[in-house]
Amino acid sequence: MKLETWKVTLGASLIVSTLLVGCGNSSSNTTSQDGDNTAGSGGSDTVNSSASNIPYLRENHANYKEHGSQQTPAPTKDANARSIHWTIAATTEDGAEKLAGHIIYMIGQLEADQNPRGWDKLFLMEAYMKYNKYYTTSVEKSATNVVVSKVANTACAYEVISAHSDAVSGDFFARGALMVDYSSRAEAILASSACNDVRTSLESYISARQSTRGNGGGGMGNNGGM
Ligand code: HEM
Which of 103, 122, 150, 153 to mutate for ligand 1's pocket (most ligand atoms within 8 Å of CB)? Predict the structure, then answer.
């Protein structure tokens, strides 16, 4: 088994250490901010991002809170800045690491042109937006806290990441419910004037990538190996 440790700086605020375990599984490197990976140092916690951690997150969804309160985590949205920010408190460092590892793993999947949950048009649209660099994601873990920032550079991409964040807050964190299909929400966004410029391309992407819904409980599509 080969162990390697990476430190990457993602944008101005993020320093994440990623432990990649090369034992035949598809390991994910951290990458974000349009692939702006530069060597960083100090001040960061180690995050293992080699797995999606979805079963853990589903099981432990109620242990995550909005930082400084006992409320379900919710995104702070700024439509003008096309940005979404989360500050999430876990009850343990392991819980924070599992969540940060999940997000970093998913960033890696999207940047590798994979389609986690490929039966759901909202997740397909988000994959398209990420792969085509219509938004960036940064993740910072510090002790038991996880800070996430997503910034879109088009109105259409903002609508997509905003709808995704509602799903994460309202179903994933609040209820541990993974089987809701957000495709109708995605279709409404696709039909809106915000998406005029990318509609044709997005429709082609969706029809080429959409997979059949499996019964794996985690609601994962069959493209992405999860
Ligand atoms: C069907 C299961 C799940 C899938 C396919 C999935 C997939 C994803 C993807 C693709 C991202 C976006 C990364 C990016 O845009 O850069 C993401 C982010 C995130 N996920 Fe999950 N996830 C799942 C379940 C969960 C669960 C159960 C939780 C927590 C209880 C969770 C919490 C988060 C958070 C907090 C983010 C970052 C915030 C955001 O993107 O708005 N996810 N996930």
Answer: 103
Cα 22–25–26 angle (5° rounding)? 95
- Note down the domain range covering 16: 2-209
Cβ(118) – ligand 1 distance below 6 Å: no
| pTM more than 0.90 | no
Q: What is the distance in A from the centroid of ligand 1 to the CA of 165?
A: 8
Does 133 map to a domain? yes
Tally of structural domains, the chain? 1
pLDDT in tens, 103-119: 999 999 999 999 999 99
Q: Using CA positions, which residue lies closest to atom 10 of ligand 1? A: 106
